[in-house]
Amino acid sequence: MGIIENERAQFMLLAGFIIAIGLVIATVMLNNIIFESNMAGEAGGDPIKYDLVNLMRISGDEIKSAYRNVTAPGQNPALKFSNFTKQMQNFNENLSIIYALHGECVNLSWDISNWNTTRYANFTENGTANGARNWTVIENVKDSNITVNVTTISPPFNISINSSTKSWQINFTAPQNITINSAQIIANVSVTPYTISFINGANVSGRFNITGNTSNNKSFIRARDYILNATILFSTSDTRANITIPVSVPW
Amino acid sequence: MKIKKLLTNEDAVSVTIGFILMFSITVLVFSGIILSFYTLLDQSRETAMRASFDILGSGFAARVTSMDTLANITGSYEGTVNELEYDFSIPASIAGESYSINVTREKIFLDAENDAKAWIPFNSSDIINEEIYSNAQDYTLWYDNNNNTIKIKQ
Questions:
Q1: Would you say which domain of life the source belongs to (chain A) (predicted)?
Q2: Which end of chain A is more exposed for a tag (fewer CB within 10 A), N or C?
C-alpha cells in the first residue's frame, strides 16, 4: 500500500521506462514488418534447360543405340525397321513415366525417312548439307582403317590425313567405295600420330566408317550412314518446348 | 531560507498554463513520432523495392538466359526450335507501386513510378528488345525461330 500512496514519482518513472522500451521494440518490429510486406515474393524457379538438354542427349544416344542393334551382324534385315520402332517405343514409354514423376510431360517421336529411302548423310560435321564443310574427324590416331562409300559427289572432296611431318590427300572425283588400311596410311604419312579430316564434306554424301586406336591406346569408331530426326515434345505447368534435332547414326 | 521559500512558492502557478504547456508538448512529441514513422516507411519501401527488383530481375534474366542457351544448344546440334515458351507472372505492384521491365540484349531495367530503379546486367546472343508493365501480370516468353529473337507476349 505504501508504494501506491508514495508521491515521489516511482510509478511515473517506471511507466516512462516501459513506454520507452515499448517504443523501441515497436519501431524495430514495425520496420521489419513494413520491409517484408513490401517484398515482391519469390523470383521464379530455375528453368528446365538442363532437363531439355539431357533429353536431347539421351534421345540421340538411344536412336544411335537402336540403329546399331538392328543393323548388327546376325540381325534380320527384314525386321530392322520394326525392331528399331519397338526399341524406341519402349524408350519413349519409359521416358514419359520417369519425367511424369517430376511433373514433366515428355513425348519423343522420330523420323527415319532418310533411312527408309536410303538417303545417305553428307560428309559434314553434323551430317546435314549446311553443316561444317571442313572438319577434323579424329586426332592423335595411332592406327586406323577407313572405309568410305561415296554415293553422290560434286567435286572437290578429299580426306586429309596429316602427321607432324607429312600430309596425304585422298581425292574423290566420282562415286566410289574404297578401303584404306593402316599400313597404307603409315606409308604415306611416315609417322604417328596423325589426324583425319574431311575437306569440302558438303559436296558429297554417302557412308563412312573409321575404326582404330588413338596414340594412348584407346579404341575408337567414327561412322555415319544416315541422319535421322528426333522431335522432343516437353511441357510442364509453365513451359512448352518442341525441338527437332538431327541424329547421326550409327555413331 | 530564501531558496527554500522560492521552491515552495506557488504564487505564479497556473493550472491553465500548465495544461496548455503539457498539451502542446504532447502534441509535438506525437507529431514527431508519427513523422519519423512516415520517413521510416518511405525508406523501407525504397529499400524493399530495390531488393525486390534485384530478385525479380535476376529470376527474369535466368529465364531469358535459359531460353537463349537452349536455342544455342539446339543450334549446335543443327536442330530446330519449333516451339519454346515460358509462362511467367510478375507482381502487379511492389510496395504499392506499379513498375515496368525493359529487356534488351545487355540488361534488364526495372523502373517504378516513385523512381526506384534497378539494372540487372546479362548477355543474350539472341535479339531481345521488349518492355512489359506490371499491370498485366501474366506473360509468356517465347522464342521466334525464324528471326532468332526472344519475344514476350501477354
A1: Archaea
A2: N
